[in-house]
Specification:
alpha+beta; 18% helix; 4-stranded mixed sheet; 76 residues; 32% strand
């Protein structure tokens, strides 16, 4: 797990594998463990990044709008 400092806060990101980057984002109703079964297959040809959404796990909160969350993720 890495706490990445970005403009406006921090992002909690787990990165595994090697190859082209692939970012997996979860919905608000699940956590990163949802991807546990598929990540080993994806990492055979990709570097997979499992980002905690702003305000969850060790990621700092973003503003109230969807745009605020999107900006924070894009910054990371």
């Amino acid at each position: 797990m890495v706490r990445l400092e970005v403009r406006g806060g921090t992002m909690d990101i787990v990165s595994v594998g090697e190859g082209p980057d692939l970012v997996l984002l979860r919905s608000l109703l699940i956590d990163r463990s949802t991807f546990a079964r598929i990540v080993p297959k994806l990492t055979k040809g990709r570097r997979v990044h499992l980002a905690a959404l702003p305000g969850f796990d060790a990621s700092s909160p973003a503003g109230p709008g969807v745009e605020d969350h999107a900006d924070r993720i894009a910054e990371a």
